[in-house]
Amino acid sequence: MAPGEVVELHEPGPQHLEVLMSWIADREQCLQWGGPVFRFPFSPATFREDCRWDELAGGVLVDGCGHMVAFGQYYRRLGRCHLGHLVVSPGRRGQGLGKRLVRALARRGCAELEAAECSLFVLKNNAAARALYRRLGFVPAEHPESFPWQDQCDFLVAPAGALDESPTNH
């Protein structure tokens, strides 16, 4: 990892919204990150609304220099801690920050929501995210509800314990 090494999970603040918006540079990235219903191009108001900034709990990973390096959200869905809008700064990808983000959000979200499992959606063509989630212990599951874009993504679940940072799970 390098620049500003130490990475900690913090509450997202207003200063993070503009940075986050800058990471989603085109329609394809918006689809990968926000899913098929996220509007693009977006304005600050539509971005805030579509990612449910004011409704959902979340976290930002901040490096030792105070720079936001990753973002994600979580909420209760079907009795699980559901993770969403997971993203790592474009300049910091490939450094293990996605793994750290998922683990930190899962730990916080499962504790707050008293959930024993995590879930998430991933687009079928998002190979990098799919590989990360598989390495972390997520497996495909049937989603008990139908939704308009279900043919474009998979629903994955993992026991909260599989996502901890014990030596056997690195």
From TrEMBL:
It comes from Microbulbifer yueqingensis. GO terms for molecular function: acyltransferase activity, transferring groups other than amino-acyl groups. This is Acetyltransferase (GNAT) family protein. SUPFAM superfamilies: Acyl-CoA N-acyltransferases (Nat). Pfam families: Acetyltransf_1 (PF00583). The keyword Transferase applies. Keywords: Transferase. Coiled coil: none annotated. InterPro entries: Acyl_CoA_acyltransferase (IPR016181), GNAT_dom (IPR000182), MshD_Acetyltransferase (IPR050276). Residues 17-154 form the N-acetyltransferase domain. The keyword Ubl conjugation does not apply.
